[in-house]
Design goal:
heterodimer; A: about 1000 residues; alpha+beta; Jelly Rolls; 14-stranded antiparallel beta sheet; two-stranded antiparallel ribbon; about 15% strand; B: about 475 residues; alpha/beta; Alkaline Phosphatase, subunit A; 3 domains; 9-stranded mixed beta sheet; two-stranded antiparallel sheet; 15 strands; about 30% helix
Chain lengths: ~1000, ~475
C-alpha cells in the first residue's frame, strides 16, 4: 500500500475485474504450468560427478567434449572444424594472457612440429604472470573491484578504501600461484580470522572493504550482503531485503540472518612497515599514506534486526536475528569465536613495524652522531681561523692595519655570467626559460619559475644581479635566492613591481614554508621595463641590500645560514636577466668570531640532539618491551616494564625539550622550556605506568562469523559455489555461459544448457583442490574450444550456438583492446602491481589497463567506450558495438602513436629482411603483428595498392586536415609520404574487425 | 542496420541484452524502419494502451545547485509580509512543522537532518503577471516570462534527497543511496531509438553533476548499457566530440582512404565468416562513425545561422554566450532528429548572496532559453519538441546566514513547454510560504512519466528482466498539463 497521500486509487473498472475474478473462484488458466517444488530445482541439488558419456567419436579430445558431442548427436549437429593454427594461437594468447602473440612467437609456434606443441603452449601461458593480470581482471569484475573515490580535490574518501589496490594485486598473485578457490573465498571474507598476521592475505578482505560508504552504514551493509550472495552463490538475496523472495524459498528474515554474519565488521588501515607517514583526509583527518586496508570485527555483540519493508528507519527491535545461512541451500554453520594474535589487536607490534621503528631510531642516532662530529670539526675549523687571524694581527705592524673591512681590494668573482651564451652552470627547475640575444628570459608568467646555478656559494659574498621586469603578470616578483637547498629552503631577495605598490624585499623559506618578516620589506618606486641592479652583501647573518648602488636595507637574517646555491626566479611575472656576478668577501676578525660562536652553539645543539635521539630510542624500546609483555608476546611481567616505559618516555620528552632549548635564545621561551623540563622530571620520578602505546589497539578476538560463512560457502557440499565458479570461467572462455544468468541460479534464472557438463566441471574443480588452472587447461585443450568460429552446417540448425557447434567470436574487453594495441606496437609495459594510475593518463602511460583507476565516478574514456566494467555490478561484460569505438580506434592519440611507432619498427625489419619488395614484406609483418596471421592474396593486393596510391595523394600540397581538437598524439606522422602511408595502413589494421575480435 | 532476428520475440531480445549478449543498439535497428522499439515486437501485450506520440524530441535544461522556486515561478507574498519573523513566530508554524511531509521522506547523508532555516527571508526580486494567462514570473526571468503562454509550470514538485545528489535522483528517479539507475534520457533513447543515422541519439552539453552528486550517472544508461548513455558534446566547433578528431596531423584524404581500405578488408573477412552478425554491425558502425565525424562539426557550426538568430539567443554576449550556444545547438540537433538533448547549467547553490547569485545565473540562461522556445515555435518544431526546465530542489523560505537560502526538497517548481503540453497553466501549489507542496504533489518520476507518455511510450512497460523497478520509479503522467 502506498503511504497516505501518495499514489492513485484503483479505478472502479480495475476493482470490478478483480472482484469478478475472485467471485468466479479465483481460477488460474488451465494451461498454466505448475512450477516444480523449489527443493527440486537443479541448482540446489548436491554436485555429483556424472560419468562422461561413453563415446568413440574421434572428434572428442577430453571429457568436456563427450558432453558436448552427446548433445550434438542428440540435436543432429556437426561441430565446426578446428580453427586454423594462427587463429587458435591468437585465441589462446588472448584468452589466457590477454595480449596477442608477437610475430616471432607466432612463427616459432607455427614452425614447431611436435605433436604436443599446443599443450606445451597452454602450460607456458598459464605460467606467465600475464595470466594473473588477464584473469585477475575477470575476477575483479565478479568481485566488484573499485578504486576509492570521493572528492579528490580535497582528498576526501567517500567510497571503497585507500590502498585497495593491494587487494587487486592479491587477486593477480593468487591466480598466478593457483591458490585454491576455496582458500581465496575464505581469505576475502575472513583473512583477519585465519591469517591475522599475514598482511598480504589481509589485503584480500578488500572484497568487503570496497563496500565501505562514508555516508550510510546500511547502504554499505546491503551491498555487502547482496553482492556476497550473488558473487559466490548466484543467489539474488536483494529481492528479500523488503519481503520474502518471490521466486526462491528465501524469507526476509533469512536476508537479515545473512547480514548478521557481517554486522560486527568494520574497516581499518594497518601499517605495513615503520613508515607511518600520514596524509590529511578532508573529514577523516590524518590517515596512513602507506598501509593495508583490512576488515576486522569491531563490535562483537552488536545485534541485527529485520528492517520492516527493508526500510532501515524501521528496525524490528523486538526480534534480533542471529547469523544463519539460507536454509534452501542446505548445510549449516558452526560459529566459533576466534582468538586473535597481537598482530591483529596491536598492528604496530608486528615485527616489520616495531623492528622498523627501532631501525629508524637507530638511524636517527647515527645521523645525530654524524651531525655532532661535523659540528665538532666545524668548531675546530672556526676556532682555528680566529686564532690564526688574531696571530696575524698580533704579528703585524701596528701602524699598518690589516685588511679587515668591507672596502678591500677587489677579489675576482667566483661566478659571473652575462648570458651571452648558455652556460652549462644553469639548470632549469621550472618555467620556460630561454637564452637569447644576451639575456636570460622568462617570457611566460609562472608561479616561482626557477633556474639554479651549479656552484656552491661562499659563506660571505656579494651577489650582484642586473635585470629588467617585464609587463605580463600581477605581482611581477623577480629576484634570487642564496643558501638554496631546494624550492622550499633558501634565503631570498627580490623586487616586486606591482601596479599598486613596489618593494625590494628579503625573506626566507624553511621546510617548504615562505616567511616574510616585516623588517625585510622596503617600499621603493620601481618601473616595469626599467633595468635595475640589485646587490646583496652577505656576511654571516647580516644582509645588506643595494638598489642601483643605493643602500635600501640592513637586515639580520632570522634563519640560520646554510650552505647552498644561487638561483634566479620569477613569480607571477616575466623578466629578462642581463648579468649575474658572485664575489667572495674576505672575512673580518669579527666575522670569524661570529662564526666561531655559532659553531660552538652548533656543538651544543648537536650534543643535545644526540641525547634526544638516544633517549627516544630508549623510550621506544621500553615501550615496545612493555607492549610485548602486555600482549603476552614476552614472558616478563608487564608492571615493571610499564613503569620503565613511562619513565623512559618522560625522559625522552625532557631530552627533546633540552634539544629545543639548546638553540633557543629568546629568554621568555627559555624560561618556559625550563619549566617544562622541571615538570616532566617530576612526572618521570613519579613511578607512573602510563605510557603511549605504539598505535591504536583493537579487539583481541573476533566473532568467527565470517569465517563460518566462508567455510560454508567454500565447501564441496555447497550446491552453488563450484557451479557458479566454473560457469564464470566457462563464460570467459566462450563468451557464453553454461548458465546464461551467471549471477542468478534461482528459479527465475536460466537453466544450464549442459547440466551434466556443468556438474562434471564443478566436481572436477573440487576434485583438483579448487585450483583453477587445471580447469582452464581442460577447457582450452578440448575439441569444443578449438573449433573454428564459423560453421556452415549449423547456420540455420543452431543459429544462437546454444549447442556449441562453433566458437562464438567475441569482441575483446576494453582493457584487452588497449593492451593488445600497445603490445602489438611493442609499447606495452607489463610491469605488475602497485597503486592505481590516474585514469587521465590512459593514453600516455603504457602500463596494462587493469592498473588504471576505475570507480563508479572515474573511468578512462577510452576504456569506457569499449564497455569498461561498472565497478558496482559487472557479473558479465557489456559487449556493445557503437560508432564511438570506431572513433576511438581511428582518432585516439594512443592508436595514432602506436601505428606511427610500429610502422618505424616494422619497416626497419622489412628493409633488412631481404631484397624483395619492402612494401610486400611490410604488409606481411603488419598482418602477423596486428592480426596474428598472414594476409590473403586479396588483402595483400589491396594493401599494396593503398601503399602505392596514398603517397602520391599525400604529396599534394595544402591537404585539408582535421581540426586540432584535443588530439593527444605525441608522435608526428612520418615526413616521407610512403612511410606515412604505412602508418595509415597499420591504423587501419588496428581498426580491423579481426583485431578487436577474439575469433 | 537491418539485422532483424525474426525468431526473437521482444522479450527474448531484451533478455539477451540484459544478459550482455550484444548491444547492437536494438532501438536503432528497429527505429531505422521508422518504428519505435515497443511497436515492433510481436508480443507487446496491449498495443491499444500505448499512448499516441505527441512529441518526438526533448530538450532538457537542468539547473545544478538548486534554483529558488520562490524567486522564479512560485510567488509567495506572505514571505515578505512576515519577513524577519521565524516560522515559529509566523502564522505558519503548524503548516510547516505539523505537515505529514516534514522530514518524512527526506533521506539525509549520515543521518543528520539539515537544520530548519527558521527566519523568513524576504523575496529578493519582484514578480509580474505575464502573458495572456497572467501567471506570475519573477523579474529575473523576463524573457522566459514572455513565453508564459507556452509554459506549464508545476509548482508542487518534491524529492527525497536534501543534498546535491538530488541531481542524480532527478534524472534516475532514485536516491543515491539506492545506487545508479538508467537516466530519463537513456530510457527514452532505449525506448524510441534514433530518428537519424549520423548523430548520437542522446546528447549532453554543459558540465554535468560533480562526483559527489551522481556524476555521469545523471545521463548514463546504467544497466541498459552504455550505448544508451548520453554522449557529451561540446559546442566548440574544433572539438565537439570525444575522439571526434584525430587532430591536425591527419588529413581528410587519409581518413577517406583509411575508411575505404578498412571496409574493403573487413568485407573480405566478412565473406569468410558469414555467420557473424556482430561483424556486419561493426562494419556499419564504422560508416556511422565516419558520418558522425563529418556531421557533428556541421551541427555545432553556428555560423550557418543568421546574425539575427545568433543575436536572439545571445551569442557573442559574454553573459549569455555559453548557454546560447548550447541552446542553438540543441535546436539544430532536434531538427536533425536527435531524441534527447540535455543541457546543464551549474552554480545555483545560493547558500549566501542569493540575490547576486540568482540574478547572475538567470541573466545567463533566461534569454537563451526563451530564444529557443520562440525559435522552435517559429519553425513549427515546438509542437513535436518538449522543452523541460528543471532543477534538483528549491530553496528554503527561511534565510541561511544573512542573505542566502538552503536546499529545499519539500516543494519546488519546474516547467515544460511544447510537444502537446498545455501552455499558460500553473499546476499544483505549495503552502503560503512555499514550504511544502500541498496540492497535486509530484515526485520527480511523474515528470519522467509525462515525457514518456508524450513520446508515445507506456512508462510502465519499460522494464528489462533482472532489474525490478519500484512503484516510485514509474511515476504517473501529469495529465492536468496535457493538451
Amino acid at each position: 500500500m502506498p503511504p497516505a497521500g501518495e499514489g492513485e486509487h484503483l479505478s472502479q473498472q480495475q476493482i470490478t475485474v478483480l472482484s469478478d475474478w475472485i467471485a468466479a473462484g479465483a481460477l488460474f488458466p488451465p494451461d498454466e504450468a505448475i512450477p516444480a517444488s523449489p527443493s527440486e530445482w537443479w541448482s540446489v541439488q548436491p554436485v555429483k560427478r556424472p560419468a562422461p558419456p561413453a563415446t568413440d567419436n574421434p572428434w572428442v579430445r577430453n571429457p568436456i567434449d563427450t558432453f558436448i558431442a552427446a548433445a550434438h548427436t542428440q540435436q543432429q549437429l556437426t561441430p565446426a572444424r578446428e580453427a586454423s593454427p594462427p587463429v587458435l594461437l591468437r585465441r589462446l594468447y588472448l584468452d589466457l594472457i590477454g595480449i596477442p602473440p608477437t610475430a616471432a612467437e607466432l612463427n616459432a609456434w607455427l614452425n614447431d612440429t611436435s605433436p604436443d606443441r599446443f599443450e606445451r603452449k597452454v602450460d607456458e601461458l598459464l605460467a606467465r604472470h600475464e595470466y594473473g593480470q588477464r584473469w585477475g581482471r575477470h575476477w575483479m569484475d565478479v568481485w566488484r573491484y573499485s578504486d576509492w573515490y570521493g572528492s579528490r580535490a580535497i582528498n576526501e574518501i567517500r567510497y571503497s578504501q585507500r590502498h585497495i589496490w593491494r587487494w587487486r594485486d592479491w587477486i593477480v598473485d593468487s591466480l598466478n600461484t593457483d591458490k585454491p578457490y576455496d582458500r581465496m573465498i575464505t581469505e576475502m571474507l575472513a583473512a583477519d580470522e585465519i591469517a591475522a598476521d599475514d598482511a598480504t592475505a589481509l589485503a584480500a578482505t578488500g572484497f568487503l572493504g570496497r563496500n565501505w560508504y562514508k555516508f550510510d552504514r546500511n547502504v554499505w551493509m546491503f551491498e555487502t550482503v547482496e553482492q556476497t550472495a550473488q558473487a559466490f552463490l548466484a543467489v539474488t538475496l536483494r529481492c528479500a531485503r523488503c519481503h520474502d523472495h518471490k521466486y526462491d524459498p528465501l524469507s526476509q528474515t533469512e536476508y537479515y540472518q545473512f547480514r548478521a554474519f557481517f554486522e560486527p565488521h568494520d574497516v581499518r588501515t594497518d601499517p605495513l612497515s615503520a613508515n607511518l607517514t600520514t596524509e590529511k583526509d578532508a573529514t577523516l583527518g590524518d590517515v596512513l599514506k602507506e598501509g593495508v586496508s583490512r576488515i576486522y570485527d569491531r563490535e562483537l555483540d552488536v545485534p541485527t534486526f529485520v528492517f520492516q519493508r527493508g526500510d532501515n528507519r524501521y528496525p524490528d527491535k523486538d526480534r534480533p536475528v542471529s547469523p544463519a545461512v539460507p536454509a534452501f541451500l542446505g548445510g549449516s554453520v558452526n560459529i566459533q569465536p576466534v582468538q586473535l594474535p597481537a598482530a591483529a589487536s596491536d598492528p604496530h607490534l608486528r615485527p616489520a613495524v616495531r623492528n622498523g621503528l627501532i631501525a629508524n631510531a637507530d638511524r636517527t642516532i647515527s645521523e645525530a652522531q654524524a651531525a655532532l662530529q661535523q659540528a665538532h670539526s666545524k668548531q675546530q675549523t672556526a676556532d682555528l681561523a680566529v686564532a690564526e687571524r688574531q696571530q696575524q694581527l698580533a704579528t703585524q705592524n701596528p701602524d699598518q692595519p690589516a685588511r679587515q673591512t668591507a672596502s678591500e681590494p677587489p677579489v675576482p668573482p667566483i661566478f659571473a655570467d652575462d648570458f651571452h651564451t648558455r652556460s652549462p652552470h644553469w639548470k632549469v627547475v621550472s618555467g620556460d626559460w630561454t637564452w637569447q640575444d644576451g639575456v636570460l628570459q622568462l617570457p611566460t608568467v609562472a608561479s616561482f619559475a626557477t633556474v639554479v646555478a651549479e656552484p656552491v656559494l661562499p659563506r660571505n659574498c656579494r651577489i650582484k644581479v642586473r635585470y629588467r621586469t617585464l609587463q605580463p603578470g600581477s605581482y611581477r616578483s623577480v629576484g634570487f635566492s642564496f643558501d638554496y637547498l631546494d624550492t622550499g629552503n633558501s634565503q631570498d631577495v627580490y623586487t616586486a613591481t606591482g601596479d599598486a605598490s613596489q618593494t625590494i624585499q628579503a625573506f626566507h623559506r624553511n621546510a617548504g614554508q615562505q616567511h616574510y618578516p616585516a623588517a625585510g620589506i622596503v617600499k621603493t618606486p620601481l618601473q616595469v621595463g626599467q633595468e635595475i641592479c640589485v646587490e646583496a652583501i652577505i656576511r654571516e647573518q647580516q644582509l645588506t641590500l643595494l638598489l642601483d648602488g643605493q643602500q635600501k636595507l640592513e637586515y639580520t637574517m632570522p634563519l640560520a645560514r646554510r650552505e647552498g646555491r644561487l638561483v634566479l626566479w620569477v613569480h607571477q611575472g616575466s623578466a629578462q636577466f642581463l648579468q649575474v656576478e658572485v664575489q667572495p668577501l674576505i672575512s673580518t676578525l669579527a666575522d670569524l668570531q661570529v662564526a666561531a660562536a655559532q659553531a660552538a652553539t652548533g656543538v651544543k645543539v648537536a650534543t643535545a640532539g644526540l641525547a634526544a635521539a638516544e633517549a627516544e630510542r630508549e623510550s621506544l624500546s621500553c615501550r615496545i618491551a612493555a607492549e610485548l609483555a602486555r600482549c603476552g608476546l614476552s614472558t616478563e611481567p608487564h608492571q615493571p616494564l610499564a613503569e620503565k616505559a613511562a619513565r623512559a618516555e618522560k625522559l625522552a620528552a625532557i631530552a627533546r625539550t633540552r634539544s629545543t632549548l639548546a638553540s633557543t635564545t629568546d629568554s621568555a621561551k627559555v624560561q618556559e622550556l625550563e619549566a617544562t623540563i622541571t615538570k616532566l622530571q617530576q612526572e618521570a620520578d613519579s613511578q607512573g605506568t602510563q605510557y603511549s602505546p605504539l598505535g591504536p589497539n583493537f579487539p583481541r578476538s573476533s566473532t568467527g562469523r565470517r569465517l563460518a560463512l566462508a567455510r560454508w560457502i567454500a565447501s564441496p557440499q555447497n550446491p552453488r559455489t563450484a557451479r557458479v565458479a566454473v560457469n564464470q570461467i566457462w563464460l570467459r572462455h566462450f563468451g557464453e555461459a553454461l548458465v546464461p544468468s551467471v549471477a542468478n541460479f534461482g528459479m527465475n534464472g536460466a537453466r544450464p544448457t549442459h547440466p551434466q557438463l556443468l556438474d562434471w566441471l564443478a566436481a572436477e574443480l573440487i576434485h583438483n583442490g579448487w585450483q583453477m588452472k587445471s580447469i582452464h587447461r581442460l577447457i582450452v585443450c578440448s575439441a569444443t574450444w578449438r573449433q573454428a568460429s564459423t560453421n556452415p552446417h549449423t547456420t540455420t540448425t543452431n543459429p544462437a550456438n546454444r549447442w556449441l557447434t562453433r566458437m562464438p567470436p567475441r569482441r575483446m574487453e576494453a582493457e584487452i583492446v588497449r593492451d593488445s594495441l600497445l603490445h602489438a606496437a611493442g609499447l606495452l609495459d607489463l610491469q605488475p602491481g602497485g597503486p592505481e594510475l590516474p585514469e587521465s593518463d590512459i593514453q600516455t602511460l603504457y602500463r596494462r589497463s587493469l592498473y588504471f583507476r576505475n570507480t563508479p565516478n572515474e573511468k578512462a574514456g577510452l576504456l569506457e567506450t569499449f564497455d569498461a566494467p561498472n565497478p558496482n555490478e559487472c557479473y558479465r561484460r557489456q559487449n556493445s558495438v557503437v560508432p564511438q569505438q570506431a572513433l576511438a580506434l581511428l582518432n585516439s592519440g594512443l592508436a595514432l602513436d602506436a601505428s606511427r611507432h610500429l610502422a618505424e619498427k616494422l619497416i626497419t625489419v622489412a628493409q633488412t629482411a631481404s631484397a624483395e619488395n619492402h612494401n610486400l614484406q611490410f604488409v606481411r609483418l603488419a598482418f602477423e603483428t596486428i592480426l596474428s596471421r598472414s594476409p590473403t592474396e586479396q588483402e595483400t593486393t589491396a594493401c599494396l595498392q593503398f601503399l602505392q596510391d596514398l603517397p602520391t595523394q599525400l604529396q599534394q600540397s595544402d591537404l585539408p586536415v582535421f581540426p586540432a581538437g584535443t588530439g593527444t598524439a605525441q608522435r608526428s606522422p612520418a615526413t616521407d609520404p610512403l612511410q606515412r602511408a604505412r602508418e595509415n595502413l597499420l591504423l587501419v589494421l588496428f581498426s580491423h574487425n579481426d583485431f578487436v575480435t577474439i575469433r | 542496420m537491418h539485422q532483424q532476428q525474426p525468431t526473437n520475440t521482444r522479450r527474448n531480445c531484451l533478455a539477451d541484452l540484459g544478459m550482455g549478449f550484444t548491444g547492437l543498439a536494438l532501438g536503432s535497428l528497429l527505429a531505422s524502419d521508422g518504428r519505435s522499439r515497443s511497436a515492433t515486437a510481436a508480443d507487446v501485450p496491449e498495443p491499444a494502451a500505448r499512448p499516441p506520440a505527441k512529441a518526438r524530441s526533448v530538450i532538457w535544461y537542468f539547473m545544478l545547485g538548486g534554483t529558488s522556486h520562490l524567486e522564479s515561478f512560485d510567488y509567495k507574498p506572505a514571505i515578505n509580509r512576515y519577513a524577519g519573523l521565524t516560522i515559529d513566530e509566523s502564522p505558519y508554524r503548524s503548516t510547516v512543522l505539523d505537515s505529514p511531509h516534514y522530514r518524512k521522506n527526506v533521506r539525509d547523508f549520515a543521518g543528520t537532518p539539515r537544520a530548519l532555516m527558521a527566519q523568513l527571508y524576504p523575496l529578493q526580486i519582484g514578480f509580474q503577471r505575464r502573458g495572456q494567462c497572467g501567471m506570475e514570473v519573477s523579474d529575473w526571468w523576463p524573457h522566459v516570462g514572455s513565453c508564459a503562454d507556452d509554459l506549464a509550470v508545476v509548482r508542487s514538485m518534491w524529492t527525497t534527497d536534501n543534498d546535491h545528489a538530488a541531481q542524480l535522483q532527478f534524472h534516475t528517479g532514485r536516491h543515491i543511496f539506492d545506487g545508479f539507475h538508467p537516466s530519463i534520457g537513456s530510457w527514452i533513447n532505449y525506448g524510441l531509438g534514433s530518428l537519424n543515422s549520423n548523430l548520437p541519439e542522446f546528447v549532453v552539453m554543459g558540465g554535468g553533476p560533480g562526483d559527489c552528486c551522481g556524476g555521469v550517472g545523471a545521463h548514463s544508461g546504467s544497466y541498459l548499457g552504455p550505448e544508451f548513455s548520453g554522449i557529451p558534446m561540446s559546442t566548440d566547433p574544433a572539438n565537439p566530440l570525444a575522439f571526434g578528431t584525430p587532430g591536425t596531423s591527419v588529413s581528410r584524404i587519409e581518413r577517406t582512404r583509411q575508411l575505404q581500405l578498412l571496409q574493403q578488408l573487413n568485407g573480405y573477412a566478412a565473406v569468410e565468416y558469414p555467420d557473424d552478425p556482430i561483424m556486419r554491425a561493426r562494419i556499419q558502425s564504422y560508416e556511422m562513425a565516419f558520418r558522425m565525424q563529418m556531421s557533428v562539426p556541421e551541427v555545432v557550426s553556428l555560423t550557418q545561422e543568421t546574425q539575427q538568430t545568433q543575436q536572439a539567443y545571445g551569442i557573442g554576449n559574454p553573459t549569455t554566450d555559453r548557454v546560447a550556444r548550447c541552446s542553438l545547438t540543441a535546436r539544430r540537433l532536434v531538427e536533425r532528429g536527435v531524441r534527447f538533448v540535455q543541457i546543464y547549467d551549474d552554480g545555483w547553490d545560493a547558500h549566501s548572496q542569493l540575490k547576486q547569485n540568482h540574478s547572475t545565473r538567470c541573466a545567463a540562461v533566461d534569454q537563451p532559453i526563451a530564444a529557443l522556445l520562440k525559435d522552435l515555435k517559429h519553425r513549427g518544431l515546438l509542437d513535436e519538441t518538449i522543452v523541460v526546465w528543471a532543477t534538483e530542489f528549491g530553496r528554503t523560505p527561511g534565510a541561511e546566514r544573512s542573505d542566502g537560502r538552503d536546499h529545499h526538497p519539500y516543494g519546488f517548481s519546474v516547467w515544460m513547454a511544447g510537444g502537446g503540453i498545455r501552455g499558460g497553466i500553473v499546476h499544483g501549489a505549495t503552502d503560503e510560504i512555499g514550504f511544502h507542496a500541498v496540492e497535486d504533489r509530484h515526485y520527480v518520476t511523474d515528470l519522467h512519466a509525462t515525457l514518456l507518455h508524450q513520446l508515445g511510450l507506456d512508462h510502465r512497460s519499460l522494464e528489462i528482466p533482472g532489474h525490478k523497478r519500484l512503484e516510485i520509479d514509474f511515476g504517473s503522467p501529469i495529465n492536468a498539463i496535457l493538451a
